[in-house]
């Protein structure tokens, strides 16, 4: 077969221009990012602590990058459904995730049907750290962790507890506590903490394991906080550890993007996220949501903590799966 000679003259010039434009297009798209609204997927229901923080961060990003950052709630499967949607999205910076680390450190390791892996998303910046808490209705006879343990041991399997969804951190925190205390309390999963709190107040749940921030402004009694030390927003509530059980899991998270997002876009988002998370408006919302002063970390710190959490959660899941079933 005779080789076809390359075009010459005007044809050669046109071909060169087209090739140059094709190579330049991605660069041009990155330098003017964003030039349209950006979606932030929150994989939990509206009204949750992450929802409030996501909207506050979105407002800060919009003011710095000049385009709307619209929060979209896509709940279900403990956050896995919304996370999978972002993992499958184009890595162009226009679909982001605001979520706790558990969506990567727990779900892909717990089951094979999530549709994504632990490395399907990359951190942009950490913007929250959530402590977990045990709460009851105000008129409950349970006033402490000791009371809860006594009531559960008196009637094994008779008490129930609610949480925001299977394999979320509130769920895992309670399960770790039940293992440590050797208790049998039935778990009831919900699709978000507003529903959990409603059933606590309605007397349909004996106790609930929730994000501590969700207790702010609610007429519930906090009987214990899962933490290394007492939370500054609830200084009179002892930790679960103080009350005799060495269980102190926490949840952290923030803004993430699909793996493969170009480095210039990640850098631009990280710079804007750092500024937005540290301005007075976001910090005021974070304080109302019971965030500790050190809730923020940059992309590198967020990534390192996420890698440690993936390893730690693998050990927790193995321990839970090895636990004998309740009788």
Which geometry do the CA atoms define?
globular
- What radius of gyration results from the CA coordinates? 23 Å
Q: What is the fold-level CATH name, i.e. the topology of the largest domain?
A: D-Maltodextrin-Binding Protein, domain 2
| Overall average residue pLDDT | 89
Q: In percent, how helical is the residue content?
A: 40-55%
Count of individual domains: 2
- Low-confidence regions: 24-29
Order of helices and strands: HEHEHEHHEHEHEHEEEHHH
N/C terminus separation: 78 Å
The CATH architecture designation of the largest domain is 3-Layer(aba) Sandwich
Strand content: 15-25%
What's the CATH C level of the largest domain? Alpha Beta
Total number of strands: 9
Description:
Helices cover 42% and strands 18% of the residues. The chain has 327 residues and is α/β, with parallel strands linked by helices. It folds into two domains: 35-130 and 251-319, Bordetella uptake gene, domain 1 (D-Maltodextrin-Binding Protein, domain 2, 3-Layer(aba) Sandwich), CATH 3.40.190.150; 131-249, 3-Layer(aba) Sandwich (D-Maltodextrin-Binding Protein, domain 2), CATH 3.40.190.10. Strands 1, 2, 3, 4, 5, 6, 7, 8 and 9 form a nine-stranded mixed β-sheet that branches. It starts with 9 loop residues before the first helix and ends in a 5-residue tail after the last helix. Mean pLDDT is 89; it is low at 24-29.
Summarize the entry for a quick read.
The protein has eleven helices and nine strands. The chain has 327 residues and is of the alpha/beta class. Helix 2 links the parallel strand 1 and strand 2 (69-73).
